[in-house]
User: Fold these one by one.
Assistant:
Number 1:
Amino acid sequence: GLRRAVKVQCTWSEHDILKSGHLYIIKSFLPEVVNTWSSIYKEDTVLHLCLREIQQQRAAQKLTFAFNQMKPKSIPYSPRFLEVFLLYCHSAGQWFAVEECMTGEFRKYNNNNGDEIIPTNTLEEIMLAFSHWTYEYTRGELLVLDLQGVGENLTDPSVIKAEEKRSCDMVFGPANLGEDAIKNFRAKHHCNSCCRKLKLPEMRSHCVTQAGLELTSNNPQCLGLTKCWDYQCE
């Protein structure tokens, strides 16, 4: 991992940002991660890394808001990302990221490299379909991976930014594996019933005839005879 996480109880808070008596997770970056990124962020390295992580989780959070508004009623679960805050500890002289502590069975649905579990229930299918949806919704610019959490509540996503797309104001954290993760996800993602309910196109680059014969998108027989499931075939 990239960070160290500690469970703490809040005993006092200003402005009701945190709630007294509640449990929270405080996250700090490992020294080797800070050393690696100090060549890029020469000053306030830890602060910059925390801000990138917060920006990443809030970007994923906004995508869940859009997803939950657009999804059909036949998709029963509504994924949400936890609120994450920036915390400065004066006694330690260090910046941290803090979020509420989740209780229940913690599960991971896919990794930041694009690998995913084989879904066995509707919740798992929805989470994997959400990753697929983020790629289509942003027209291939972003892909939300590393989905993990308790039930519908998620945390620590990786928002993968395609290298050939420019979003200078959205630079995400050190877990971003870029184009390699997108290519791996496109190659390995298996569309499920929730992908079909969302009317998402197949990710893998091939054309399929009505008889089930697979043809490459470079095959001229695809043209006019088959339904193309890859945007590059247009």
Number 2:
Amino acid sequence: MRLTELELIQTQMVARHGIRYPTEGNIQDINGLLKRLKPFEELLPLWMRNYTLPYNRSVAGELAVAGKFELWELGVRSLARSGHEKRVMFLKDNYRIAHTHVKRTRDSAIAFVDSFFENPEDVEYIEYPKNTDFLLRFFDQCARYQREHSFGLKRESIEFSPKDLMAVQSACAFDIALYHHKHQWCSLMSMTFIHSLDYLDDLEQFYWIGAGYKINYEMAAVLLRELVDTMMGRVNGSNTLAGNFFFAHAETTLPLVTLMGYGDRSLLLANATKAEINSRGFRTSILSPFGANIEFRLFKRKSGAEEFYVQILVNEKKAKIPGCERVFCKLSELEQQWDYYLKPYDFQKDSPPPTNNSAEEVRNANIQGDKKPREDEIAQVFMPNAESSAVYEPKATDTPLSIPLGSVVELKLDYICATSAAEVEYLKEFAIAGQVSVRDMLSLANRQRQPSHSPIRAKS
């Protein structure tokens, strides 16, 4: 089937919010590192000696200006893909805009709306309540997920390097995302270290919200069901929606694309070889960056028998729909393909809502979406071989990791690449602050820490 034979009658999109400011936790970690380094000013790069963060807690976790522009541009491109030469008029019967209770998702929706609609002031926003958002924050409403995997991973922790060094990575990520700066925090990291952290991030996300556990992505069945029901409603005339837009989190978009079969479900292991790391198909920097989106486009055949086709764009890129293996698939075929998740799968049974005790655990964990700082901006800027397509296809020229995860000697900090006794003494203090041993942390005699020989698994 060709696009010229089809007429677009409905588009639905599930989008992650745009670039945000660091959370309070990010800010505390970076400020904590700066405070501990203060006594050693003479060893620090000049820019770091009187450095203060260019953001504060008043904007912690909120959508940044760059993020607003990111979603505004997404609206412009979505409008053009829908065949409109100018902004459209918002009518309640034709369009629906929804977001979670978290402010950055509402602000993302507003930015998108400003470029998509001629009358943005008339748009009615649907905000799903904090404690009963089964559609976009299903990860909050599933006690089994929180108990078996989310909190389990948090307890077990996939940390291969000190907390302080992860703060450097986080600061670099936000320097790039917010200000396009690479000359301060990012200058402390070598490409080897960046590649190591990129795999570390993928490893964590794979078992947190990716294909590592079925419950991670099966929770998204409630959202897939809503999307398909909306398409069926347009087909049978029970709704007249031309556009249906949801704004949420990485914990929403990544499980959804995984459920539908995008990305690689092959297990990621802590002891993976260089070749395995290099050729992995699961890359969060490609599947779930800031502004990540999945667009469901419903088409009607222009002539002949009345048939309806679906095209799915992942991050605005065309890709064959897994299972159907075509860019345009019949809606009826997808119904059959996803039948288990559309009908017999019982979210309430498989993912019962939190009890009073588990609800308290959720509150204590302060889950707001984006449970960890997102460093995918680093990978996108520094890695020349990063693919922009929806499904990563490894290249022979990709640079493999040249050291095991956790070997941080590649950081270009003089006081970390120490050789003198005095510097080693300082490093002991640095290691204690990061809650790791000097032996585990350093490679002063070109020795390297050995990676784990088992996959990262949560406690059951």
Number 3:
Amino acid sequence: MNKISISRRIVQVICLILLVYGGYIFKDWKQSAEAQKQSIFPSLNAPEGSISTTKFEKGSILWPSGATPVIENYPPTLVCRFNPNGGMFKACILHFFSENLTWRTSIKYLLPYITLFVLLCFLFGRAWCGWVCPIGTVGDFLTFLRRKMNIPVKRFPANFRMNLSFTGYVLMVIALTISTLIGMPNLARYQCYWFLPYCQICPARLICPMFGLIKPNWKDFSTGITTTFTILAWIVLGFFIAAFYWGRRVWCHMCPVGLINSWFNKGCGIELHKKAVKCIKCGYCADVCPMGLTKMYEIDKDTIYNQTGCIMCMRCIEVCPRKGCLSVKFFGKKFFLRRKTDAEKVSQQVQ
């Protein structure tokens, strides 16, 4: 395993521990209500008469199995409100928008959170997906199991990946539309059923509690709506697991947090560079890309390659047999340079 993969695995494991188990590790660091009032990030709470996750009882889909998080904020990665004991951060950015659209929170209270989110996205782009995301790490572990079971990887055409992204955007728009509608006074009575609609089907809601040996709420058949959400959650979780056995990072094409991060890939602090004159068209970069991207291989001119689907895993740089052909810069400073490659080992890495 090359030093890039080793570095990435170490970062992924550390981030998984911090983001999921932060509620246990830093339980004494949780902000008091008084400290939250003095923070530049105002406390965001449900107005009187509105629903919130704290009002759901055990046994309902949206019962949060943990306590309050250590930091009441929303980083550009899939951190989950349903982490055991609250987790390190409160939730993902889709949860943030969905919740506050329903509460009809004033934009002046949301701006500090949005500003920090955008800043972090501009710094690292979708590296949050490739290096930090706990669900992505779980997916990479499933891919590791696929290899151990000698299940061949499936190569999906570009149209299939585009359709997944389109589906992800459709689900995101539907979720935010529902969240907005149930915030209207004449539809507020439906909040107990339709609150945080995407969270109700998100695989993270079922996966994250299990990290704390807490049984997630697998089912709620109390009404037709909750039954529908329960079945949809099972289907989405089944697709999530199967997707990583079929291919690599298939779920990442439709993850709403990843899709939002992708808007910042072009122009972010991390840049992938290619010197076309040194390219020998071996195709290794296209073969190892977990997102199935081939443009790096196809480009015939010197360029900055920051495609929206790229998760900045640097696998292309890791396997490139030509020194200086591919490189990565962070605000103009090179790092993770390709120095040498054992040609016999490269073919073993293309899985």
